[in-house]
Amino acid sequence: MTLLPALTLGFALGLRHATDADHIAAIGTISTEERSTARAAMIGASWGIGHSLSVLLVGGALVIMRLPMPVRLALALEFLVALMLIGLGIRSLAARRRAGHASATRPLLIGIMHGLAGSAVLAFLVISTTTSAFSAAVYLVCFCLGTIAGMGIVTALLTLPIRASAKHAVRVERFVRVAAGVASIAIGLSLAHRVGVEDGLFAATPTWTP
């Protein structure tokens, strides 16, 4: 892969990666704490920065060494993400009122966890499509920039229903929060089943391949 395709593809896939269902579910449980579109975008960008740190450190190390992540470790990280989604969903449902401005620390940590879980597949993709270490580095950096930008946009959009219904903001916020919580739990349970049962995390020999 030459430089320009690596740059373009990396950024485009980063934008696409930000819209994965588990990512939106996780950030959706936090974005309901914000009515400001700008602050919500910052929350999403914070998630993207955390995700990027994991990808650049772990995924970059795997790419440099041209090694895949051990299958059971990759599955264990995915399973932890599933548990995190379930926990975030329960927290969102249990919250009785808006907590004020959301902290940037929580989305940063959630992004780090998501990045760790996604590093196995991303590293495999980069290793299989690039031969140059420089192209691989450009791809990873552009992927991360696309993810940060994409999640900032997605999180800002999640606040629009609340802002558009100023008269019924509290009611709409409650509906969005409950919907985000239910979605996060459902996606977390689905992911846990896939990783634990279908991909064989708890089996003698895992069946998952990146």
Q: How far do the termini sit from each other?
A: 20 Å
Indicate the proportion of strand residues.
Answer: under 5%
Radius of gyration: 18 Å
Helical content class: over 70%
The number of E-state strands comes to: 0
How many structurally independent domains?
Answer: 1
Q: What is the typical, i.e. mean, pLDDT?
A: 85
Number of helices: 8
State the shape.
Answer: flat
Structural class: mainly alpha
Let me know the largest β-sheet: none
Order of helices and strands: HHHHHHHH
List low-confidence stretches: none
Account of the 3D structure:
- The chain has 210 residues and is mainly α.
- Helix content is 79%, strand content 0%.
- It is flat and about 55 Å long.
Brief rundown of the structure:
The chain has about 210 residues and is mostly helical. The chain is built from 8 helices and no strands.
Give the tags:
210 residues; 8 helices
Helix and strand arrangement:
Blueprint: H1 3-17, H2 21-31, H3 37-65, H4 71-94, H5 105-129, H6 133-158, H7 160-164, H8 169-198
Helix pairs in contact: 1-6, 2-4, 2-5, 2-6, 2-8, 3-5, 3-6, 4-5, 4-8
